[in-house]
Structures are given as C-alpha cells and as structure tokens.
Specification:
The protein has 258 residues and is mostly helical. It has helices at 2-23, 30-54, 66-89, 101-127, 139-147, 149-160, 162-183, 188-216, 222-253.
Length: 258
C-alpha cells in the first residue's frame, strides 16, 4: 500500500500537467513548457547542490550559520527562478502562441508543474531516504523516520501540499509579467525583470520565513515557536496566493497581441 500511495503522490504534478494540457484544448507548447521545466529543474538542482557543497551547507535548512544560510538560499532561489523564466523564454516566448498575460500564465504554470515533478522525484528517491533526523526534531518526525513512513508517506504528502501550490503561484506571477513583456515590445526587458524579481521575492519569503520566525522566537518553546511558524507562514502564503488570483483576473481583461 505504501509504495502505491507514494507513487500516486509522486505523479500528481504530472497528472496536473496532463489535465492542464487537456483543459487548454491541447494548446501548442504547453507540454513543451512542462518538459522544459522538468529537465531544467534537474540542472538547477545540480547547481544548487554544488552551491551548498561549496559553502559546506548541504540541506541548507540544517546550516548553523544564519547569514550564510540567507546567502545560500538567495542563490538557490535565484537559480530556480532563472529556470522558471528560462523554460518559457527559450522557445515559447518567441512563438506566436504567447500573446499576452493569459497565455504567459498558462505556459509558466505548466513549466512550474514540470519543476515540481522533478523536485518531487529528487526528494522521493534521494533526500527523504537519507534525511538527517536530529535529536531536536519533533517526536513525530523521529517516529516517521524510524518506521520508514517519512520517505514513503509523510514526505510525499508534504510535497503535495504547500510546495506544489507555491510553485504554481510563482508561475502565475512570472507568467503574467512575461505576457505583458511579449505584448509591450518597447518595455520588454523591464517587464521580464519585474516578473523575475517579484516571483524571486515571493519564493524567497516562502522558503526562508521559517528561519526568520525561528530567529525572532528562538527563546520560546518548540511547541509555541512551531505554532507561530505555521500561523505566520500560512498567512503570508495566503497573501501570495491572493496576489496570484488577482493577476489571473487581470490577465483575463488585458489586451493581447492579434
């Protein structure tokens, strides 16, 4: 049962990618964006691994130096956002199929699903089986690691939640601005830079918010600080998702290229 459930959770981004392709009436290059996101994410995570190894900060959330951790997170998030943008810019941006923000969102979301697809495989096959569970980890995580469900159930379910929605959210934001960039040729560089900057900021805040809260509430008990982390992170993430929904609404009314 465990392998079947794990396999299903692992395949969810691919299922969503197929559904998006069907929902858009097999729109040209939607599958291309997904595949580009998948394979470029592989390259990105190799680069992230090299960065973390170079700074002796592998599995960056275990890095003891707070300032170094910020720097490494900045680099890693930057690599992933370059990949997200590159998956759309490589070929799709030059095509006639991308005409404005609406299409930009579709292609960037498809690329983001591809990114999550590879990222989930990386976590499932390489990270979760050897995840460093410390004596300071919660009793639940220690139990999950001891019984083997951390790698087969708990980890995949966690990857199915916020990370999947987060990558789609960042894709919406980036795609919206890439669509504007395609429609406004005279300010193209500005809008591409704007899209990457906003998605980068949202991605970094999402990734690093836990560490910031830990730093602010370091003197509280694990239970209280954990509760504060969850509440604040969900509130901030809800704001990011709300922004994405507003951009989707605006994209529907934006003018597109003929």
């Amino acid at each position: 049962m465990k392998p079947i459930l794990s396999a299903f959770l692992l395949l969810v981004p691919f299922i969503f990618g197929i559904l998006l392709y069907i929902k858009t009436n097999r729109k040209p290059l939607i599958s291309h964006a997904f595949c580009m996101g998948f394979f470029l994410m592989l390259v990105a995570q190799l680069a992230e691994f090299a960065i973390q190894q170079n700074f002796n900060c592998y599995l960056v959330n275990r890095c003891p130096d707070f300032r170094l951790k910020i720097f490494v997170w900045l680099l890693c998030v930057g690599v992933e956002e370059i990949v997200r943008c590159g998956a759309v810019l490589v070929e799709i941006f030059r095509s006639n199929f991308l005409k404005g923000p609406k299409e930009g969102i579709l292609y960037a979301v498809s690329a983001s699903l591809g990114m999550v697809g590879w990222e989930n495989m990386n976590y499932f096959f390489f990270i979760f089986p050897s995840y460093p569970v410390l004596s300071t980890s919660s009793p639940f995580i220690q139990y999950a690691a001891k019984t083997g469900i951390l790698a087969t159930i708990v980890g995949p379910i966690n990857r199915l939640g916020l990370p999947l929605v987060a990558h789609v959210t960042f894709g919406v934001v980036l795609g919206y601005f890439l669509g504007i960039a395609k429609a406004e040729k005279d300010r193209r560089f500005f809008w591409i830079t704007m899209g990457m900057s906003v998605s980068f900021l949202m991605h970094f805040v999402y990734n690093f918010l836990d560490e910031i809260i830990k730093k602010l509430f370091f003197n509280l008990s694990d239970l209280i600080s954990g509760g504060v982390q969850s509440i604040v992170k969900l509130a901030v993430f809800a704001i990011e998702v709300y922004i994405a929904f507003q951009l989707i609404k605006k994209a529907k009314t934006k003018e597109t290229l003929p």
